[in-house]
Write a structure and sequence with these properties.
- The protein is α+β, with helices and mostly antiparallel strands.
- About 25% of the residues lie in helices and about 20% in strands.
- The protein has eight helices and six strands, in the order αααααβββαββαβα.
- The longest helix is centred in the last third of the chain and has 10 residues.
- The two termini are about 35 Å apart.
């Protein structure tokens, strides 16, 4: 169980770093000593030998992911325990059956179309025009691995494909989970603030090339 009021610490420390889904481990003890023990050991992100351990190592959905936090945090930060308006979390079996188009060259993708009869079309949640804002991906470091929800606003097509592919059965994944923002329903600024919570810090293996 996460200790009381730790959500404030974790929210304050969210920072995106820049070989996606590649085994890179930080060995900086100074970085670990300068952050709370909960952040390095039992918080959302794990460093050093703690990588691949803890309650947050495998993302299966927002509700289960936030379950370890105490009631006090739920009262103080209710917005972090539910998806923002106009944001949809969509678990999909592969192949997903989605045609993605880049918003800008190598930066951001949206749902251009759904494959008729494909998994996404049959599920009925995704719509044409939905913008991908986060997705699950598996990162491997040595013999350890984690599946996390990673902000994807800046992901190009190739990185999206790689991230989807990393959600493999050999890592215990029976799906990939996409988070999309629906234009006209969502407040992009509010969604951006929500996603900060999921941005990986620089002292973990989750170093992204964006």
């Amino acid at each position: 169980m996460i200790k009381t009021s730790t959500l404030a610490i974790l929210l304050a420390q969210a920072a995106l770093s820049v070989d996606a889904f590649a085994p890179v481990i930080s060995t900086s003890s100074q970085a670990r000593e300068s952050t709370p023990a909960l952040y390095a050991q039992n918080g959302i992100w794990n460093t050093g030998n703690s990588f691949g351990k803890g309650e947050f190592r495998f993302y299966e959905g927002l509700d289960s992911y936030m379950k370890p936090f105490p009631d006090e945090d739920r009262e103080m930060y209710p917005e972090m325990f539910k998806l923002p308006k106009g944001v949809y979390e969509v678990p999909l079996a592969k192949p997903c059956g989605i045609l993605f188009e880049e918003i800008e060259p190598n930066c951001g993708v949206y749902v251009q179309d759904l494959v008729e009869g494909g998994n996404a079309a049959r599920q009925g949640v995704l719509q044409n025009g939905d913008v991908l804002v986060a997705m699950t991906a598996v990162q491997i470091s040595g013999a350890k691995w984690e599946r996390r929800m990673i902000p994807a606003r800046k992901f190009g097509f190739d990185l999206v494909v790689n991230a989807i592919g990393s959600n493999d059965e050999k890592w215990g994944c029976n799906n990939v989970i996409l988070m999309v923002e629906r234009p006209g329903e969502a407040d992009s600024e509010e969604v951006g603030k929500f996603l900060e919570f999921f941005e990986p810090p620089s002292d973990t293996p989750w170093k992204l090339p964006v």
